[in-house]
User: What shape does this take?
Amino acid sequence: MLSKVSPAQRDWFAHWHETKWDGGSPMFLPQKYPREIAVLHPGAVPISDPALIVPFKIPDNSDDYLQNPWEQAEVLDLILLDTFDPETSCTLGVYGGYLNPGTDRGVSMGFIEPDATWVFSNVGYVLFAAPLKEALSSAVQDRWREVGFVFLSHIWPDDHSWFLVVNPDFDFTVIGCDDELAEKLLAQPELNAREMPTSW
Assistant: This one.
């Protein structure tokens, strides 16, 4: 069951979004983790020019992120459930760029969520508290299957020991984590996972 996110988790997330573009380049994760793993979405390749801001991109991509890599998301879900207790208390974020609070657009699309907490930066995100098993990509798809343009964007546990982010503008998912989870991600060929380069 989804519930209202705590003010502490909301503020931690919002602070990151308010400051991550400082210095001209994005900070992909809200804090430093022992390992930082990128899962390249289908078609994405390494980019060697740091001036392009991102280390991986689908060549000549034009809003292809709207075609989410569902097969990869399913593998990620299974790995997270294998690594952590499904009842782990988490915060999940969904991309809310097409759902405008204070208007009837979200309601008319079927996004009726009184426990939603909105956070705005360059785009809007909607946060909820949930056990891990209800915060995964598959759960997000099931809950809002009839609502257009609602995508999983973030998951993290209350202790911030790992963090998953799917930025709607990027062609890769980033996971900050420990060695155990990193090695599981790198071992799955379906994920096309690799260490995040240190030059970004």
About this structure: Residues 57 and 171 are 5 Å apart (CA to CA).
